[in-house]
Amino acid sequence: MSNESDAADAGAVDRERERHEPAVAPSGFELGTDGPKVILAGLDGSDSSWRATAYAAGLARRQGALLAVAYIQPILGAATALAGAAVEETTQEIADELLAALREAEHRMREVWRVRWRFLTMRGDPYTGLAKLADELRADAVVVGVSEKAGHKVIGSVAVRLVKAGRWPVTVVP
User: CATH fold of 33-173, please?
Assistant: First the structure.
C-alpha cells in the first residue's frame, strides 16, 4: 500500500507543478496551443497555385491563423543573365500583379469572410525560398499547388521536395 500512496503523492506533486509551469517543448514551442498560427501558401500565378492559396485562406480563416502568401521570384539561367535588369523588372511586375490580384480578391470577398494575410516575395529557387520562409515564420502548415510542368514528374516538383523535407505539414492542391 505504501507504494500506491507514494505513487499517488508523486502524481499530486507532478499535477501541482503542471499548474504552475507552462508545458514547453524542448524546442521552445508551447505545447497544447489551439490550432495553427501561420499557414504559408506558395503562389506563382498558375491555376493550381491560386487554388492552393484559396484553400489556405479557408484554413486560415477557420483557424484564426495568419495567411502568409509567398511568391518566390525565380532566378533564371545563365542564358537570360544577359537580360539582367529586364528579367528582374519582369519578376517584380509579376509580384506586383499577384499582390494586386490578392487585394482585389480580398475586396470582393470581404462581406463573406475575412482573413489576416501578408504577401511576401523574395528572389531565389522556389523550394529554397518557401522552406526559408516556412522556417522564419514558424509556419504550422505549407500549402502549394501541384506542378503543371511535365518535367517535374521526372526531377521532382517544389511540392514533392517540400513533402520529402518533412519539416512541416504540406498540403498539395490539384
Answer: Rossmann fold (3.40.50)
CB atoms within 10 A of CB 141: 19
DSSP 8-state class, residue 167:
S
pLDDT, block means (10 residues), the chain with 174 residues = 46 41 47 75 92 93 93 70 57 85 81 82 91 95 83 65 90 91
Which amino acid, one-letter code, is at 145?
G
Distance CA 99, CA 133 (A): 17
Q: For residue 99, what pLDDT is reported? A: 86
Instruction: Read off the C-alpha cell for 53.
Output: 492559396
Which one-letter DSSP state was computed for residue 111? T
Q: Where are the beta strands (DSSP E) in the chain?
A: 38-42, 66-73, 117-123, 141-145, 170-173
**Domain spans of the chain, in order of start:** 33-173
Q: Which residues contact 23 (CB under 8 A, 6 or more apart)?
A: 30, 31, 32
